[in-house]
């Protein structure tokens, strides 16, 4: 079935997003990785909705978008406040809390 | 086309506890805008306390509701909005625990102690060390947004365990997490650590919720619905376009569980816990340690039971694999929590590792998979929450001091009352300024001599966490491990007793580090205290003394209630255990 291609794409995007979160150093880029994961999820939701022939999945995608937007607001606020304090947005510089 | 809109019927009554809390949160935001600054804090505190108290009362009322408890003719539980919310005895019990603990935590949050300052930055947006921050301190500003934020988090925590819909669960997860990320960044002192804690919590939390929601997507692909009842149905009797892909639902369920285990702080997903618990303002740490864990375990149990019961129908082998994964998580959590906890030198970090270990102990009860294990989990969550809120409340009162030189350091609010904060019991030959919390363990040496009551209650909480008889922790561990030994069929079948054995061994190791603190407090001479002043063991800040600030009242009440609860539940646990036994009625 053609639709499975979209699922594969969603999985690949999700993997790229997860790898970005785990490997990149810049907080903003890490954050973009999270957003990519969420959007991969949206693609999967919409594709599954198409497969099942109901609109629930499309509605779910809207919910995920709204939540992602709320997350951006809080996340950027935290990253900006850290950046203003330390003049750096690298996740490696944030290392005061160690045992 | 049928274009008439049919409004859904909503059983508002059963949503009342949640609506009260979230409504109070919204009113709190309006208070920020419209109430003058002088009385704003008082209004917010009263509103938050009233809202949580009212929510608790409503939970108690609903508990006896025949529709919730069920009768001979009707099953228990009410499904509101087609299962978006499932108000059953289990959900109500977890909601009750959450609001009760939140009430106590708000008492601690609201306390300004004898120093006249709460635990939050005057303006969290000010850059640490900047002139603007100095100004906000001198003006004596207060960040009263804390209370609405806490209420929103509590609202999310109440929805989280009481929903039968994976999407609502995801939204609730975010509603409870986002305020906590912000609250973590708002500490008055050691603001760099606080911001860092918030940063780590946010990035890892966002990652975990992304995993969760992708898992939801896969489960939706398999079942064609995010309703847990539907998921159960498709698992039990596969059908639909993707029924040939059971791998979908297995991966999906694992991702969903990973997201939930992250919130619980179970072992492969625990890395954030010590840092966040240490960096966040201590009253907030107590709040999120106790309440988040209760809410997340409620949600975890719901998902776990649906997946496990469904897989038992269709493919028992897959179910076994899932259980192996859970076992590994449980064992790892207990071992990491106790072993790494044993070498900590910071009180807050130590309590964080203790919380990880407790997540493991609760999981031991969970994997018993029976009515017994549900009862044990509910009881354990209450007991653990009481001891945790109490212990962190004690930590807020033990403070570092520094001798005052020419002027009061910027860390001390000069706006209040003019004179430097001098604790009255410290008949000072030299005025001292009270700084942040003395979290280094060496600074706690000899605390029992100076403030026997405080050290005594802290010891009580530690003994309860260690599981010493006559404290609630013992009964909790006993029921949890008992549930694991009884096994899924309640007859001693299965091999979950192995987990119980490891649990007992881990508890024994944990006793070591709890008792170490007690010995330190009562039988060790103060190292860097008021009488020495050298404090080479302290290492945190040289020349710093340690003092105990007096609570302005609320924290004392919270500590007393927690201590009383821990004692009473330890000596007379049966009434609450009976209540917990009623709470096992469970709509998937």
TrEMBL record, chain A:
One of its GO terms (molecular function) is NADH dehydrogenase (quinone) (non-electrogenic) activity. Its EC number is 7.1.1.-. The keyword Secreted does not apply. Keywords: Cell membrane, Membrane, NAD, Oxidoreductase, Quinone, Translocase, Transmembrane, Transmembrane helix, Transport. The keyword Oxidoreductase applies. It is an enzyme of class 7 (translocase). It is a multi-pass membrane protein. Pfam families: Oxidored_q2. It catalyses: a quinone + NADH + 5 H(+)(in) = a quinol + NAD(+) + 4 H(+)(out). The chain crosses the membrane at residues 6-23, 28-48, 60-83. It is found in: Cell membrane; Membrane. GO terms for biological process: ATP synthesis coupled electron transport. InterPro entries: NADH_UbQ_OxRdtase_chain4L/K, NUOK/Mnh_C1-like. GO terms for cellular component: NADH dehydrogenase complex; plasma membrane. NDH-1 is composed of 14 different subunits. Subunits NuoA, H, J, K, L, M, N constitute the membrane sector of the complex. NDH-1 shuttles electrons from NADH, via FMN and iron-sulfur (Fe-S) centers, to quinones in the respiratory chain. The immediate electron acceptor for the enzyme in this species is believed to be a menaquinone. Couples the redox reaction to proton translocation (for every two electrons transferred, four hydrogen ions are translocated across the cytoplasmic membrane), and thus conserves the redox energy in a proton gradient. This is NADH-quinone oxidoreductase subunit K. It comes from Cellulosimicrobium composti. The gene is nuoK.
Automatic annotation (TrEMBL), chain B:
GO terms for cellular component: endomembrane system; plasma membrane. GO terms for molecular function: NADH dehydrogenase (quinone) (non-electrogenic) activity; NADH dehydrogenase (ubiquinone) activity; quinone binding. The chain crosses the membrane at residues 12-31, 43-63, 90-110, 146-162, 168-187, 199-223, 243-262, 294-312, 324-343, 350-372, 378-398, 453-476, 496-515, 557-577. Its main location: membrane. Residues 409-430 are annotated as: Disordered. Keywords: Cell membrane, Membrane, NAD, Oxidoreductase, Quinone, Translocase, Transmembrane, Transmembrane helix, Transport. It is a multi-pass membrane protein. Residues 164-399, 439-486 form the NADH:quinone oxidoreductase/Mrp antiporter transmembrane domain. Pfam families: Proton_antipo_M (PF00361). The keyword Cell membrane applies. It is found in: Cell membrane; Endomembrane system; Membrane. InterPro entries: NADH-Q_OxRdtase_suN/2 (IPR010096), ND/Mrp_TM (IPR001750). The keyword Glycosyltransferase does not apply. It comes from the Bacteria. GO terms for biological process: ATP synthesis coupled electron transport. It catalyses: a quinone + NADH + 5 H(+)(in) = a quinol + NAD(+) + 4 H(+)(out). Coiled coil: none annotated. Its EC number is 7.1.1.-. NDH-1 is composed of 14 different subunits. Subunits NuoA, H, J, K, L, M, N constitute the membrane sector of the complex. NDH-1 shuttles electrons from NADH, via FMN and iron-sulfur (Fe-S) centers, to quinones in the respiratory chain. The immediate electron acceptor for the enzyme in this species is believed to be a menaquinone. Couples the redox reaction to proton translocation (for every two electrons transferred, four hydrogen ions are translocated across the cytoplasmic membrane), and thus conserves the redox energy in a proton gradient. Belongs to the complex I subunit 2 family. This is NADH-quinone oxidoreductase subunit N. It comes from Cellulosimicrobium composti. The gene is nuoN.
